[in-house]
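S1.2 Input.
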Amino acid sequence: MLERTPPQFRELQEITMQTDTRDILAHATRQAESYEDYYLVDIDAHVTETAFWPEILAMIDNDVIRQMGFANAERPGTGNVSLLNNQPGILHQHAWGRIPHQQALMEKVEKKAGTHHFVELARRSMDALGLDYQVVFPTPMLTLGMHPQDDIEAAIGQAYNKWLVETILPQDNRLKGMIYLPFNTPEACVEEVQKYAGVDSIIGYSVVSTRNKPVHHNSYMKLYAMMEESGKPFSFHSGFNWNDPSFLQLNRFISMHALSFVHYSLIHMTNWIINGLPERFPKLKVLWIESGLAWIPYLMQRLDHEYQMRTCEAPLLKRLPSDYMREMFYTSQPMEKTNLDRKKHNLKLLQATMESFNAETQLLYASDWPHWDFDAPSSITTLPFLSEQGKRNILGLNAARVFNLPVERKRPKAADVLAARPGVS
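S1.3 Output.
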């Protein structure tokens, strides 16, 4: 009898924290070949700023706080978290090491004069995902709004902005930023807007939503007026906080993560609308980042229902709350994939959600790279209920309109990116 030839399998290289970004995203790059003629803007990508924490500490203007930061950093194990209030011991996004790119991007990067380590990593992700522009946000600082010392939040926020504008953004014009507003100190926010409103690489302003501050307080009115006058949008970037008293009842990361990102957006959006801020600042473009989409029609219905019974409590409103929400902007990630049966095209719930806020004109693509639950542009291009123009709008043209970005191709061809990594592609 002839011996049966055993089946042949190609052994795949294990993905680790040292794996090249372009290799991790190789499948997304192959997908990018099918939308080469699209204009793509990623509104939400992240730098792990603590990987470069000494650079940021050095940019703190306050001599005392800067000295405190470096002194704290000398304690073993605290060099990259000095002055921060986050709790790395319960950050479980990487699924206990099973999602390496969430743990750390420790791939080899050749040192080049004039090129920061992070800029090279960002270029790799932009090229691999097929992006013309990418907007950079911090990561551990997303919980800085809960810092018990307001002056520390202001000092770190100002130092991060300076690092971003002076060190990172000048090295690649495909990278853009939205300055961190130390929202617990309104006057410090005003100073940052005055400082950076005229900087071309800064295309907007951002508040990390994880905080307990009423956005309708009178102390913020000068800030909103200044941002409105500048013509650049204002965003709320959501995050989580397991230490919130409500969330202390939850015993799993999955439970807290599912609720926390939406929780703060629900509160800030409700205060923003019911207190009439859309009427007071009608030209201020407001953007909601990283809360997903499912919360939007939920809150529209809840607020409309209450408003129609108690209009006297929202005297500044001239329309239904949902009408104001439809004029705001939202980012796509994480796009809830609840009843997605692509074989049967059973996407009715997601379709209804997107239709509720006119997604084809109000939704902006976001990857959230390199976080564990990132979305490639194919998360948009594969949705059958979106029109071709709607897909193009969401993936880039809406962002160009909101942020006044030039609509021009900046990225290399996907085939060229794949050709440079022949061992994977």
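S1.4 Remarks. The two ends are 39 Å apart (CA to CA).
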